[in-house]
Specification:
Oligomer: single chain
Shape: globular
Number of helices: 5
Distance between the termini: 39 Å
Mean pLDDT: 82
Low-confidence stretches: none
Largest sheet: 7 strands, mixed
Number of domains: 1
Strand content: 25-35%
Strand order of the largest sheet: 5-4-9-10-11-8-12
Order of helices and strands: EEEHEEEHEHHEEEEEEH
Helix content: 25-40%
């Protein structure tokens, strides 16, 4: 028995792949390793703590028992996979499609949903995506408005799948629903997630309530490698970007450079 992380239904939940199972059919059989890293970043000093690299021989097969069957797993989530897969497969394989405004909206929702599922493989102390954003995705069927989604391209299939996640405690008001119990640390109010699937790299930034100056433009040298798809660009995007991530080192630095 449990509570669905998206719709809130209570009852017996189903196990769902954190990485959609169709990815195993799309990518070459030799790409069997999955890769994830867990980070927590201090807002005042920028110090990175709780870095825990996690290598799973069969990470693409891992399941989490957090969603209901009728409304979510067998409903809108299944419909989303069927709609997003034809858009994602060419990019994952390194082809060059045009991404319309609707394509960007669909891929952004898929990216948000997948990042939310992947987060649930990590310990509570690492998780940065709040419950309110799960609920928003369920109710609106689009990525949360306080979120940005970018796509980048890798020059080769360095990973079958890889995932990097960070929770941030940035300066800002703590809303009532994030107030911790007495003696407990204040949870993150912002997060980043980087997902690698074949030759596709997806990066997300989300936040709750922040005070003062806060820029959602990434402060790193990778701007030419990114295409912002949420909010979607009117008229669409040509693919791929002018700059690709050309090595494993590039991907590691790209994921580690998520400072905003």
């Amino acid at each position: 028995m449990g509570r669905c992380v998206f719709c809130g239904w209570e009852g017996t939940l189903t196990k769902e792949h954190a990485w959609p199972d169709w990815i195993r059919d799309v990518l070459p059989a030799g790409h069997v390793k999955g890769h994830s890293q867990q980070h927590r970043v201090a807002a005042t000093t920028g110090e990175v703590t709780a870095i825990t690299p996690v290598l799973h021989e069969k990470a693409a097969n891992r399941k989490v028992q957090v969603v209901c069957q009728r409304e979510c797993n067998g409903g809108w989530m299944s419909d989303l996979e069927n709609t997003a897969k034809p858009l994602l497969v060419p990019i994952i394989l390194g082809e060059a499609p045009h991404l319309s405004e609707q394509d960007q909206t669909t891929i952004s929702l898929w990216a948000a949903k997948t990042a939310m599922m992947l987060q649930l493989m990590h310990p509570m102390a690492i998780r940065g995506i709040p419950a309110a954003h799960y609920q928003y995705v369920y109710e609106h069927r689009e990525a949360p408005s306080p979120m940005r989604v970018w796509l980048s391209a890798a020059s080769s299939h360095f990973y079958r799948t890889a995932h990097y996640t960070r929770g941030y405690r940035l300066p800002g008001a703590v809303p009532p629903w994030l107030q911790p119990p007495p003696g407990e640390p204040t949870p993150p109010n912002a997060y980043t997630s980087v997902m690698v699937i074949g030759r596709l790299v997806i990066s997300l930034l989300g936040w709750t309530i922040l005070d003062g100056d806060f820029s959602v433009a990434p402060d790193d040298p990778w701007a030419p490698a990114r295409r912002c798809i949420w909010p979607p660009r009117p008229g669409g995007w040509s693919w791929p970007p002018d700059v690709a991530l050309g090595s494993l080192v590039d991907i590691e630095r790209f994921a580690a450079a998520a400072t905003y």
